[in-house]
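User: Could you walk me through two proteins back to back? I'd like the raw sequence and the structure tokens for each, with a short line separating them so I can tell where one ends and the next begins.

Assistant: Of course. Protein one, sequence then structure:
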Amino acid sequence: MKYVVILGDGMADWPVEELGNKTPLQVANKPYIDYLCKNGITGLVKTVPDDMPPGSDVANLSVMGYDPYLYYTGRSPLEAVSMGVDVLPDDTTFRTNLVTLSDEPDYKDKKMVDYSSGEITTKESRELMKFVQKKLGDEIRSFYGGISYRHLLLWHGLDMQFKLTPPHDISGKVIGDYLPDSEILLDLMKKSYELLKDHPINIDRIKRGLNPANSIWMWGQGKKPALTSFKEKYGVKGAVISAVDLVKGIGICAQMDSIDVEGATGNIDTNFPGKAQAAINALKNNDFVYVHMEAPDECGHHFEKENKIKAIELIDGIVVKTVYEYLKNSGEDFSIMVLPDHPTPLKIGTHTSDPVPFVIYRSNEKNKSGLPYNEEDAKNGEFVEIGHTLMNKFLS
């Protein structure tokens, strides 16, 4: 038996008035996912406990079958693992976004214009992070460049808890009420603004009509995680395919193969055919493949309803179609599960902890829900209250 999870990050949503009070999943043309749903089982799964933050870290741990109460230590340590950064037990890591802030004189009066600095290129952002490291790094703290706007701060010997806000939660808002409850972190952010606002890369971006990456923003702190290997836990050898360091980090910590795909960006311009082919290739050496696509989530954060619908259709028409057709013609029994990790409603532009719809299709079973795949119809199916138990159901 081969097992494939196809995860559209943030794919679930709330009804949208401009879409006739339907969700993007309800209006998207997705014949392959709907076929799997009508000929499989569907339902809702609670991937994020109500008392935990509704981040992709908690949610993907749950979907991958790891109880976040036992395994969650923060987002950034998982990203650090993916980036190859050596994290010691007494280190604390922080996700460090390059963001665009407005130009009010007082830092606390600035607005969060863009949490991603206009999806800044990796080439530009890594130059900026090298500059930040040169000016603000020292023997106890180091800044590491990641992908696009997503970067890392490693702090040796730090054992403190902070109240930090994800920047995508405060798009368009004045940042004063959401600044760190730490003068040390706040001072770094203020200094970064003075360093970056007139950097040649940002001056050039402004000339080209692009948002400048004029400040760092720390959040998602945590300690080094320790996950039981996926094979030991579930008895199958697995691989992860993602453009996002967070998901890659979970896979690496679970001792799964982490497969990079050329042209994979984490956005709607990602290499969907490449991800589908990578999944097929991975199945030749693995029993389980987890294919993660970030595009619907990014569209939700940017309030782009047309692009969110398009992202769902691309996932269906390229990734699900390609993987399903390959498995159908392989002559081997297989199971496919399609779901998001969490909703990213277009109305609010950030994550929620609402249950998400899932579909499980098995080639060797005759389940027929008869239902299309969306949030509303999934209410007529099963309800999995404890998210990490869904993986047991999928693999059983």
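----
Protein two, same layout:
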Amino acid sequence: MPPAPGLVDRRVEITGPTDKKMTINALNSGAKIWLADFEDANTPLWQNMVEGQINLADALDRTIDFDSPEGKRYELGQQLATIVVRPRGWHLDEKHVLVDGLPVSGSLFDFAVYVANCARRQIAAGLGPYYYLPKMESHLEARLWNEVFSHSEDALDLPRGTIRATVLIETSPAAFEMEEILYELREHSAGLNAGRWDYLFSMIKKFRSRPKEMLLPDRNSVTMAAPFMRAYAQLLVATCHRRGAHAIGGMAAFIPNRRDSELNAVAMAKVREDKEREAGDGFDGSWVAHPDLVPICDEVFSAVLGDRPNQLERQRDDVHVTAADLLAVSRTPGELTEAGLRNDVSVGLQYLAAWLRGSGAVAIFNLMEDAATAEIARSQIWQWLHAGAVLAGGEAVTRELVVRLADEELARLAEVEGASFDAAAYEEARQLFDGVALNDEFVDFLTIPAYARFP
């Protein structure tokens, strides 16, 4: 099917949670699309889930505004991004809504509340209810979603194809089923996205029984230039464009630091290089995590697109990717270092402490960390431990080393944060961290034991 209204030109997409401030900033950012995130950038507190849905309805009604504690007022401008909602994955429940005494799927809850309350609001604005579907591993999941969409359209008396969905290819199994996933969603498909961060997490998770063969270097050194990531990205573009579907690039997670111009310049250059690679590969647009990155992404893609809304005509017949290419993790350049291990430990602890306090998108070391990036950090620690990895300095990665680094990082955070240091939150975060990074068995998702701690 042809692209839906509001999804024809997707050169810049911004991601973020659905609190009032982010809702207004994202819609005003100049991006073409806002991924309104109920998943990785959100902590699924009941209040967050309900207020987020209210904020989306209020934004569509143009009744949303926000006054910050500092006295700054936020209101909607004239040109707004198209809202695309990312519900939770199938693996997460919504414990506050029961059917036959059992919790409903968080994914279905998030989808249903939005489509019931906002579908007609979006249609009245000339758009429609659009979604991003996360964590998919099989075309069978796409088939189930297609049935959900068709049932909902029938129940709401909407024409077939009103609901559209972009699938995040962010698991290793899904990379082998891109064609099938597009086929199953053919009545409702809006393309595929290269969900790079969860994809790295999935490579560790899915091949955890082969940690030495699939050993990744420091988390922050693995870029889209790594051979297995290049294969994945180029295959996604070729697959999408062969089917007339959009291919959307991955997220730039850098958070601008206005107090450090040198750091800012280096980071912005890396963001530009990343987006230039994607635009050159044929992607139709890409993600950013901060409004200050929208102009860079827009400039890079506009230089390639010109007056065209996308690159769907670019077929990439030159791309020939094999299964071995997708699994060539051992060819990834980079080292395993103590600094990288320490970063994993610190990010894991800081993110979990913030998540437990209700924030799912957290600025740490000038990067926007969400559940996906935190998953890479904790799973990398698990992988290095179980592979018997040796760091560049010659020290073996052991449980004792990780525990020592965690102790040191907590002491450093207590010193840096001073009176604002939440000892109770960090103690709970440490318990969770130990459970998902140091456990003998690999925990599928850190958010499952974390969510169990909420009432």
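The first helix runs from residue 20 to 28.

Let me know if you want the two compared in more detail.
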